[in-house]
Amino acid sequence: xxxxxxxxxxxxxxxxxxxxxxxxxxxxxxxxxxxxxxxxxxxxxxxxxxxxxxxxxxxxxxxxxxxxxxxxxxxxxxxxxxxxxxxxxxxxxxxxxxxx
Length: 100
Known about the structure:
The chain is an all-beta fold and about 100 residues long. The protein has no helices and 9 strands. The termini are far apart.
């Protein structure tokens, strides 16, 4: 890309919450600070607890599902082509693997 943009976010999600099924136009590094979450992709489900991380490549379809009774706190970093939006929610999403 000619230019890159970095998006850094901190989030707290309540027990049972899920993110929309989505993609990012660049690589996402995701780190769980507290609680637990299942990161679901078409290929696999990853249970992430405190201190665990995952790096997803650009355009990887995924969603996060909070599995901890006290909620989940996390940090995410997305580095993407500045000419594209950082995230895109999917309407017609493929079937995802689940931690359940």
